Amino acid sequence: xxxxxxxMRTKMDLxxxxxxxxxxxxxxxxxxxxxxxxxxxVSDSSQKGISYARGSFEPDAISQFFFGDISASMMAxxxxxxxLSMCVPQHxxxxxxxxxxxxxxxxxxxxxxGGLKRMSILRKRPDVSDEEFQDQWFNMHSILVKxxxxxxxxxxxxxxxxxxxxAGERLVDGMVxxxxxxxxxxxxxxxxxxxxxxxxxxxxxxxxxxTYLVQPHEISGCA
Length: 223
Hints:
The chain is an alpha+beta fold. It contains 5 helices and 8 strands.
C-alpha cells in the first residue's frame, strides 16, 4: 500500500465543527486509484509516555490518501498537493509538507476504530543510512512495538520522498500510526518493561520523535 500525507500547520485552531462541516462538503471521488482518505485533526501534541528529542515542525492536522500502487494520479496528487488539504481552506494553511510513503501494517487497527489513534513523526539519526533505518524499523523495532501491553493497531509509513531541509536531509523519515484503548494505556505501555526496551532500541536509529493524539475522520469522497 502507498500513502501520500500532507502535514499541515494552520493559522488558527480548527474546531471540530469546522472539520465536520468541511468533510461533509467534499465531493465524491471518481478516481478509482484512490482507495481511501483520512483527515487527522491533532488534539494533543504531548509526548504521552515517552521522553525523546522533538523536531521543530509541529503540524496540527495530517491528511492521508491511500493507493494500491504508485499510479499516475497519485504521483500528480503528490507533486501538486491536489486535494490533500481536504477540508482545510487554502488561506488557513500556513505550511504544508507532502510526503510519499510505503505503508507497512504490522498489527491491523481495530475494526470498530474505537479508542485513541496516535501518530508520530520520526527522523533518523544522521549517522544511519536509509537502508539501515528501514531494516531496524521494519524488523526488530516492529517486533518490540507489537509487544507493548494494550496496543490495538500499528502501522509504519516509510517515507520514500518528501520535503528536505537546506542540508538535503528529509524533514520526515517515517510516520507511525498506533491505536490504544485510552491515554492511560499508552502511558502504562511505555512505562512497562516492553516499552522501556522499545525506546532503548529506538535510540539506535531514531534522532527525533514528535507524537500526537489525533481525531481521525474517514472520508468516502476526495476533493
